[in-house]
Amino acid sequence: MAVLDGSQVVRHGLFALVVGAVGAVASVVLCLLVNFAYGVVVAHGWLLYALPVLGVVSLLLYRALKLPLDTTTHTVVTDIREDREISPSLAPGILLGTALSILGGASVGKEAGALHMGASLGDLVGRPFKLRSVWKADQVASDGGRTGMNAYAASVGMAAAFSALFFAPLGSAAFVVELSRYKREVVKHLPTMLIACFVAWAGASLVGIGDIIPKVALPTLTWPIVGQCIVIAVCCSVVGALYIKAIDGLQQATKRLSTNYYAWVALGGVIMIVLVTLFGWQAFEGTGGNQLALALAGKQETWAFAIKALLTIICLGLWFRGGEIMPTFTVGALLGASCTVMTGGDAGWSAAVGLVAFFASMSRCPLAAFLTGCEIFGWTGAPLFALGTVVSFSLGRDVGYYGEGATSVLRQTIGHWRNLKRS
Fold first, then answer.
1. If we measure between CA atoms, which residue out of 335, 344, 340 comes closest to residue 308?
2. Which residues, other chains included, contact 177 with Cβ-Cβ below 8 Å and sequence gap of 6+?
3. Contacts of 256 by beta carbon, 8 Å cutoff, 6+ apart
4. Which residues contact 409 (CB under 8 A, 6 or more apart)?
5. Do 364 and 405 form a contact (C-beta atoms < 8 A)?
6. pLDDT tens across 39-90, in order?
7. What are phi and psi of 30, to 5 degrees?
8. What are phi and psi of 109, to 5 degrees?
């Protein structure tokens, strides 16, 4: 019979309250700083020409903080999966680095900044609590219950910050659980993560600062709507696979050619300057929130998704500091709305389905995509989002921006068990 350690239950509960509040504050500060930076570049468009320098400065900041210059959300997630400590310096590094990128008009998001900050702060906040497993059996079985606690604390902080940013506690908890690929210590302490997520959500909701995505009118599920959802999801699956392959391929190619990240980020800045100036793509600078709102309002251009995807691939592939999630949401919404050329459906709800389906394809986290969509747009859209998620996720190879997906990990685990039985 599983027995709980009462002392650790109290410690975990207090930790959840504190890290939830810290995650909310971190998210609000990130929003205020990044939104200010975007407002400045919109008002002073010439800052685009400073983008190569700003990119280099952000990397110099990482160097000063002794952070790896190739740090991405994938590397942070890998550290969590392998139970490594997350540097406290990552929080200020990604905060200022993202702001510098946005100040120059880079096509990056702030949401991964929240994930990085949350992981860093979660690990830091958890240390004084001397957390161990709440289950006495685990304390006996593995290193006094300390195994996996670094990953657990970082995961809780990550989920809390993400919850505050999108006002989506359930989707955020699911996202981090899926990112950890159902790591045992994270799953077994899920109640603590949920408490932290709801505390962070409440704090951010109180001040009303976060990524507020406009609502859209959602239709009831009929056979024509089913067909339109399937078309959108198939397109999101195909384009999502190409999008992730392009970002990862560009990062890997640059690493093979040279590890001089300063040169690569400067080159990325120059390419952005040329493309934005030559084609007048100023509206596609920044996180993409403005373009997302246009897609949900049905005012997008047919090929707008390709422009945002291209600029995001350049910026992330050439090592600008910043995140991938809001640009991904934007590309998905723009793509979903563009699919109305084929389906003849409403652009607003098509954009919402595209956002959810593209996120599922990109992240390989289907439960998180579904729940986040429901929390953002409303639970009446659950059938639409479930259909879009299942179709988009089920097509193609189970490898996304964060590495192999949960089904790939499950197959490997089953294969490992079979090998053990044979031996």
1. 335
2. 155, 186, 187, 190, 193
3. none
4. 181, 182
5. yes
6. 999 999 999 999 999 999 999 999 999 999 999 999 999 999 888 899 999 9
7. -60, -45
8. -105, 170
Tokens linked to 104: 């120059």
> Can you read off the two tokens belonging to residue 412?
């490997």
Q: CB of 123 within 8 A of CB of 154?
A: yes
Comparing CA positions, the residue from 371, 31, 28 lying closest to residue 168 is 371
Question: Which three-class secondary structure string do you get for the chain?
Answer: CCCECHHHHHHHHHHHHHHHHHHHHHHHHHHHHHHHHHHHHHHCHHHHHHHHHHHHHHHHHHHHCCCCCCCCHHHHHHHHHCCCCCCCCHHHHHHHHHHHHHHCCCCCECHHHHHHHHHHHHHHHHHHHCCCCCEHHHHHHCHHHCCCHHHHHHHHHHHHHHHHHHCCHHHHHHHHHHHCCCCHHHHHCHHHHHHHHHHHHHHHHHHCCCCCCCCCCCCCCCHHHHHHHHHHHHHHHHHHHHHHHHHHHHHHHHHHHCCCHHHHHHHHHHHHHHHHHHHCCHHHCCCCHHHHHHHHCCCCCCCHHHHHHHHHHHHHHCCCCCECHHHHHHHHHHHHHHCHHHHCCCHHHHHHHHHHHHHHHHHCCHHHHHHHHHHHHCHHHHHHHHHHHHHHHHCCCCEECCEECHHHHHHHHHHHHHHHHHC
Q: What is the pLDDT of residue 145?
A: 58
pLDDT, tens digit, 9 for 90 and up, residues 286-308: 999 999 999 999 988 889 999 99
> Cβ of 43: how many Cβ atoms within 10 Å?
8
